[in-house]
Write a structure and sequence with these properties.
alpha+beta; FAD/NAD(P)-binding domain; 315 residues; 28% helix; Polyamine Oxidase, Chain A, domain 2; five-stranded antiparallel β-sheet; 2 domains
Length: 315
Amino acid sequence: MSVSRIAIVGAGAAGLAAAASLQAAGGDVVLFDKGRFPGGRLATRDSPWGGFDHAAQFLRLRDAGLRDEAARWCRAGCLAGWPQQAAEVPAWVGTPSMRALAAAWARPFELHGGQAVQAIDGTPFSWSLRFAGGGVAGPFSRVLVTVPAPQARPWFADSGIAPALAAIRYAPCWTMMWVPAAGRLPPETVFGAAADGLDWIAREDGKPGRDGAPRYLVHADADWSTAHLDEDGPDVAVALRQRAATRLGIDAAAVHAVAHRWRHARVTGAAQQPVLSSGDGRYYAGDGCLGGRVEAALLSGRAAAQRILEDGDDR
């Protein structure tokens, strides 16, 4: 059934998946994101030495429908298999970057970047978005929010889904982008299940479709990230570089080393519902609904679109 204009707040995996399903069904969809680029965790940081996928490292797609979509994305040149992460469920990476994958997904939509939503105002099935920098967009008959739950809670404080949103839990992650000064590096390109506060080390230049200098992306584990959450980025970069160098058996000197903090990186307590609906035209979807994987966010976004379409015409 048809609905009027639909706003999606957050252009990450869930928001983009929802937009694709809604637009395919004839929906009039507009996306808003506070970032300059779409993608959320499908993020890439540029540097003179090459890009760093400094959030999601890869996708593992177990859902048959998404795996069919992956074949189409591969044919379009924005996705490739990552043989170094071979497992029972294949790993995929965006090409030439994770940000490029998100950009390809976002291309068909009306997307407004750099728009931080401050409030969602209005009455049932007639909602407007008020932005932190001034300005208002709307009205929209439906608003789907896909940002991390702590950011979304104020917009649903008066709704029945407020307790479910409050129960969603996240762990942080410090990530470090490192170009070693060492001339000789280990031949391996992936070092998972590390220790001493590290959760992941991978050679960015070892991924499909990448070029640039030899460089590493390092993730701290949840415990270390939590313990050092409020430390300064340069200090965190030094600490993680030293730990990574010990793990790799190389000198810790760097040509480039920058740390980035993700406060809501890993879902540790999901709602265990694919979509949350307030019953008045406001919806919530994202990895906080089904679990902390890109696939979970994609499936939640699709479920939200289906729920919006099933709810039907304006009431």
